[in-house]
Amino acid sequence: MRSTRLISHLVSLGNYFWGGFAGLAGCFCFFAVWQLAHELYGSYVLPSPQQTLQAMILLVQTDKFIAMAKITAERSFLGFAIAGSIGILSGVLCGYSFAAIRLMRPIIIILLGVPPIGWIVLALIWFENGGGSVVMTIAVASFPLIFINSVEAIATRDRSLDDMARAFNIGILKRFRTITFPQMVSFIFPALSLSAGSAWKVAVMAELLSYSGGLGGLLFEARSTFDVPEVTAIILIIVCFALITEFGIIHPIREFFESWRHASDPWGVKR
């Protein structure tokens, strides 16, 4: 039994890394289009991928970059963690009550309608130029999407499975862990993926406007000196951090929780 499970995990891990080659092919196509745009418009408008990579290597080697990247990462993960924990918990609780869903729907629509730049301005007024404004902006911008998906996960669950488990006198916590939560994964993790990616973008945007350090502060300095290669390098670094968060953290966790979907396939993996 253990050997079969080990083989299942190894094959799943191999398929996961093998699927990364398609992503690499897409990246190479993107760099090819980037190089073409550079040749058309020149380095002042758009540096070449080689120039950007050179600027990125020089930037990463500085002690200042490490300190600033750490600040942005801490703010991004803190804001994302606040939005994720509150959004999932409140979404699960509201999902069990249709009255609560109808009550919260207009509030969520209002929150979705406010652009992140609006929250940044309000956060700057409330928290001034500090890390609190960045964390608050990330949390408020990410909360509605996570909340909506959590509510939908509970509201659209298979209630017949709950009824069957209740007939066997299974407790509510065990029913949630073994029946409800596996159904929630396909709803929650797409929202977490989008929110994690937007957390980096919102954090840098808030830091840029408030000049509160972090990668946004570096971007502000590079823009002030018209250092286009460094600006492009910082943007590429932010994209890399977002991709690492998505494919290095969230996606493997999702595959772990959704392994039950492929239990009936040979070796427990997709054909």
Automatic annotation (TrEMBL):
Topology with respect to the bilayer: Multi-pass membrane protein
Protein's GO biological process: transmembrane transport
TM region positions: 16-37, 77-99, 106-127, 133-155, 176-196, 232-253
Subcellular location: Cell membrane
Pfam family, one: BPD_transp_1
GO CC aspect terms: plasma membrane
UniProtKB keywords: Cell membrane, Membrane, Transmembrane, Transmembrane helix, Transport
InterPro entries reported for this sequence: MetI-like, MetI-like_sf
Principal subcellular localization: membrane
Domain ABC transmembrane type-1 as annotated: residue spans: 69-249
Annotated family: Belongs to the binding-protein-dependent transport system permease family.
Protein name per Swiss-Prot or TrEMBL: NitT/TauT family transport system permease protein
Provenance organism: Bartonella choladocola
